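Bumping with the actual sequence this time:
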Amino acid sequence: MPRKSMESLTESMFYVLMAFCQKPMCGIDVADYIDERTKGRLQIGPATLYTILSKFEKERYIVEIHVEGRKRTYRITERGLKAYKEEVERLKSCLYDAENAAKEQEG
């Protein structure tokens, strides 16, 4: 069965929401946060980032709070925080299942 839009987040989407959980940010701040947090493992390009920001704004996960020239600053909404926390729980369940499967395989 196909997933509904925003039912689960891609890795990039997850890290974008994680960034906004820290504080309001503009796009470049988000990209820098992700690069630093993942020690360069996940690098998000401008096209991907701005597509995610647009989708998150449309879904009301983030809201624009300040515009200075082309620089737009966003903050996470309650809806976005809820989506982030739900994804954290989904990922924890995935890890739990994987760890149990590995234990069963061992013995």
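The tokens above came from a reply further down the thread. The CA atoms of residues 19 and 33 lie 6 Å apart.
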